[in-house]
Amino acid sequence: CTPSLASIILLLVFQGKFTLLRDTRTDGSFLVHHFLSFYLRAGCKVCFVALLQSFSHYNIVAQKLGVSLTAAKERGQLIFLEGLKSCLDLLFGEEEQSGQPSPLQFLSEGASDLKALFDFVRTSLTPAGSDSWKGPVLLVDDLSVLLSLGAVPVAVLDFIHYCRVVVCSQLKGNIVVLVHSNEDSEDEENELVVNSLCHHSDLILWVEGLATGFCKDVHGQIKIIKRVSLELTAEKDLVQVYQYKIQDKNVTFFARGLSAAVL
Amino acid sequence: MPPAIGPLSPGRSSGTPAEATPRTLRPGPATLTCLLATGHLSPCPARVARDVQTTRPPIGQLVSPAALPLVERKGLDSSRRPLAAVSRQPAEMAAASAAGGAARGRGATSFQRKAAAGSRLAAVAGTRPSVRHGQLLLSSGLPSLDCVLGGGIAVGTLLLIEEDKYGLYSNLLFKYFLAEGVVCGHELFVASAKEHPDNILKELPAPLLDDTYRNELGEEGTAVKSEDFQDSMKIAWRYQNLPKMEASPTSTKFGHYYDVSKTMPPELFQSINWHSFYLPEELSLQPKMKTCNMNSAYARLLQSIQRIICQEGFDGSDPQKKQKNILRIGIQSLGSMLWGDDICSSDTPEDIHSLTKFLYVLRALLRKSLSACIITVPAHLIQNKAIMERVTNLSDMVVGLESFIGSERETNPLYKDYHGLVHVHQIPRLNSLICDVSDTKDLAFRLKRKLFTIERLHLPPDLSDTVSRTSKQDLAESAKLLSSGCGAMAIGKKHLDF
């Protein structure tokens, strides 16, 4: 299906950018599903590093949003790294490797660096001769898991930096990364990574649960921060706040206090 | 810029969003795109995707392969499924087809996809498909906990219980889970570093038969009524000869009740296949897998679980097995000192990644097999809260128990009927953007003489003549603490959102 006018605007304007998805006190994975289906529908080549859920989970949600991940994988548009499966292959698989080290090599080697994962991303997104896809996109869900698996924060930041150089600067593609954060979190390593990424992002989508508690009709609020200040034109960042409600096949956004239940 | 909102027409109920939104904002996958592209909420020219009513498959139907999307079945390539064949027109009430279309909730037409021959699974005992995400659900052994968790524990997921201070009630939940497995005929895997699994299995609560359960609730009235009913069956006289109540808990029923004061009779165990992992016995053997810097006890446990899953064919690797079964894994007090981990005993533990790595690999094993796991963790002993945050992120369902034993709340008249509070920290969103969050956030549990139940916390009415200031403050404090919700974990510090 043809992308709408808004998608065309977004794709033309937003190239070579780093988008950070951040959630606090709630689950921001609906944004990952949105971006995955959005970029696949727009005809971009997507490398999806899915560390936390299985392929069929994303496939089923993507079908609800109108995209088939299996079809995208078959025509080479989607390169899907299923972290859970490759972790099992690494730990319980046989010794013979097909020459290529597993992307999650850092698990068995004592967490030195994430070079193998970066090599995987680079080889997936570097365009082969016959590719006709639009700009490459790297999608990561989610980065905080790498810290739980033993990677040091500096290694994670280095990985993101290398990916930015290749994907954003050289290939003019986009990167979308999901992280979890919490205001009174005691996980200092995670906060370090999140703060550093916030400083370097071009767009931050910050999803929070409502401060007043649980609500059936408003599931949370989203802050869209456009980092205009990075362009050094002496302008401040543009911050917009909306509230949202997640439904079975879509997410509706509305201005604060104007949810459909209230109107 | 104010959004373009039209006035509501008279007579419209402010009910479902499907009615209210066409006037205000056009929903659709492009809405976030509009926000990012144009910077304001103008209605998009995108197609309106109306909410399609999900069809509800009848409980107990035969489970087709499509109802097990979390499990990758070998040899069954999902790309062969014809996606285009299902019409996208939003149908109001589709015919509930027995094929996977109904379980997916796609609002299919009456088109019935013929499943590949030989791949139809017989109904697995003790499970039922979820209407939300088409996943198979297991009972946790406690029907009230099943309600709280959105119907049950989905196959392939992990339930983490944060232990209460003395581990009494979490142990009870652990045993309920295993007892449910025995009654349903599932296979069990029990791992513990503290108690030998044989002893754990000897102490499982006995299942309550239907008629004795009714007596427990003190509802003798219903028994009397049923006798009258028997005499008066005029139209359905054929059914008079059928047995009135189930004499024994059958494995097709979902969710059973257990009597904590009695232990399970050994004859129920005879047909059950169970495996045990007792750490002191296992430590003498050599590990065979790469430990990848994990605590050796965890590494051995993972190796043992993986071996059982492969050998017994729970990951679909053995096509000869016609009758599928579920593996219920129970791990007791993970993270405690007995497992060789010092996160519970030291402020700066040596290796903070072992537990999280273990949970990640366990998650991978669960996702690719027909199994479900319950783990109890002594969270109150873990000093480094960062570890508990990471553990929560890596688990699917997290339930914390807080017992009143030894705390000031034991004597608080607000809680006189209950023995502790239940905090549901996380519910998973499986195969869907939303999850079945129950509206009740304030839950408490109590252990009556024979039954353990989780209920909505009701504050008793304030009937005292002179209401003292201290009791009012107690109420306010308790009310603040109770306002945590899963999904939106706000503590409710503020009164206004904006």
UniProtKB/TrEMBL annotation, chain A:
Its primary localisation, in coarse terms, equals cytoplasm
Name its GO BP terms in alphabetical order: tRNA wobble uridine modification
What pathway or pathways are given for this protein in its record? tRNA modification; 5-methoxycarbonylmethyl-2-thiouridine-tRNA biosynthesis
Q: Name one Pfam family in it.
A: ELP6
Cell compartment(s), UniProt: Cytoplasm; Nucleus
Q: Which CDD domains match?
A: Elp6
GO cellular component term, pick one: cytoplasm
Question: Record's InterPro entries?
Answer: ELP6, P-loop_NTPase
Keywords attached to this Swiss-Prot or TrEMBL record, sorted alphabetically, are: Cytoplasm, Nucleus, tRNA processing
Similarity-based family: Belongs to the ELP6 family.
What PANTHER family does this protein's entry cite? ELONGATOR COMPLEX PROTEIN 6
Question: What protein name does the entry list?
Answer: Elongator complex protein 6
What is the species listed in this Swiss-Prot or TrEMBL entry? Otus sunia
Q: What is the lineage of its organism?
A: Eukaryota, Metazoa, Chordata, Craniata, Vertebrata
UniProtKB/TrEMBL annotation, chain B:
- Give its localization: Cytoplasm; Nucleus
Query: What ranges does the record give for the region Disordered, renumbered to this chain?
Result: 1-29
InterPro entries according to UniProt: Elongator_complex_protein_4, P-loop_NTPase
UniProt xrefs under Gene3D superfamilies: P-loop containing nucleotide triphosphate hydrolases
Which keywords appear in this protein's UniProt record, sorted alphabetically? Answer: Cytoplasm, Nucleus, tRNA processing
Q: Which Gene Ontology cellular component annotation is one that this UniProt entry carries?
A: elongator holoenzyme complex
GO terms of biological process kind: tRNA wobble uridine modification
Q: In which pathway does it act?
A: tRNA modification; 5-methoxycarbonylmethyl-2-thiouridine-tRNA biosynthesis
- PANTHER family annotated for this entry? ELONGATOR COMPLEX PROTEIN 4, PAX6 NEIGHBOR PROTEIN PAXNEB
The protein's role, per its UniProt record: Component of the elongator complex which is required for multiple tRNA modifications, including mcm5U (5-methoxycarbonylmethyl uridine), mcm5s2U (5-methoxycarbonylmethyl-2-thiouridine), and ncm5U (5-carbamoylmethyl uridine). The elongator complex catalyzes the formation of carboxymethyluridine in the wobble base at position 34 in tRNAs.
Q: Which family does it belong to?
A: Belongs to the ELP4 family.
Name of the featured protein: Elongator complex protein 4
Q: Which organism is it from?
A: Otus sunia
